[in-house]
């Protein structure tokens, strides 16, 4: 029952996170790679990327696809744990935006899995990034810095035609990836 109440709450927070502030944006200093991997990505292809990444991690993470359903708002909701979810907004059957949402409880009960989930989102949205580049995006967002209070944090990073926005508050943590 708690999970059913949590999903609408996270959807409201995702809607509130939709706007970004240009003063928080960091510029992409690297040349954008011309690839088609992010362009016209279908929901099924994206879910397959998540499945493959989780399979590669094996026992190194407790995350797994517990459920994968389309909600009444036509948003694909993937539950990875009790506290970590992926919301896929789509245009037709194509991915428009992917949001990783976690309760703040994930910081206390599954911190390593949450850290992996941040890298998972970056790497599955843009599969051209090698691990070092994925980690760099997460670092630029301030998510790997122990001095960053991610429960009171907003940061935007642009990389390879994807805008990553992190917004954390005392109720939820949201990493958004919008394909440009």
General description of the model:
The protein contains five helices and eight strands. The protein has helices at 2-17, 43-57, 105-109, 111-125, 131-140, and strands at 25-26, 67-70, 76-79, 84-91, 94-103, 153-159, 162-168, 172-179. Helix 2 crosses helix 4. The protein has an eight-stranded mixed β-sheet, with helices on both faces. 34% of the residues are buried. It has 180 residues and is an alpha+beta fold. The termini are far apart. It is globular and about 40 Å long.
Strand and helix layout:
Elements: H1 2-17, E1 25-26, H2 43-57, E2 67-70, E3 76-79, E4 84-91, E5 94-103, H3 105-109, H4 111-125, H5 131-140, E6 153-159, E7 162-168, E8 172-179
Parallel strand pairs: 1-6
Antiparallel strand pairs: 2-3, 3-4, 4-5, 5-8, 6-7, 7-8
Helix pairs in contact: 2-4, 4-5
Terminal Cα span? 36 Å
Q: What's the helix-strand series? A: HEHEEEEHHHEEE
Coarse structural class:
alpha+beta
How helix-rich are the residues, as a percent range? Answer: 25-40%
Kindly summarize this structure in a few lines.
With 180 residues, the protein is α+β, with helices and mostly antiparallel strands. The protein has five helices and eight strands, in the order αβαββββαααβββ.
């Amino acid at each position: 029952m708690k999970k059913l109440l949590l999903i609408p709450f996270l959807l409201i927070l995702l809607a509130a996170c939709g706007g970004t502030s240009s003063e928080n944006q960091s510029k992409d200093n690297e040349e954008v790679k011309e690839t088609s991997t992010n362009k016209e990505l279908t929901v099924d292809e994206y879910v397959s990327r998540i499945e493959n990444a989780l399979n590669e991690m094996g026992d190194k993470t407790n995350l797994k696809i517990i459920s994968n359903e389309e909600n009444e708002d036509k948003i694909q909701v993937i539950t990875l744990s009790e506290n970590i979810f992926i919301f896929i907004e789509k245009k037709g059957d194509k991915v428009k935006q992917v949001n990783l949402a976690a309760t703040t409880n994930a910081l206390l009960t599954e911190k390593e899995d949450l850290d992996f989930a941040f890298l998972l989102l970056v790497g599955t949205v843009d599969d051209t990034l090698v691990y070092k580049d994925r980690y760099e995006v997460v670092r630029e967002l301030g998510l790997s810095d122990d001095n960053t209070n991610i429960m009171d944090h907003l940061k935007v990073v642009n990389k390879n035609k994807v805008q990553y926005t992190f917004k954390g508050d005392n109720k939820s943590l949201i990493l958004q990836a919008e394909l440009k």
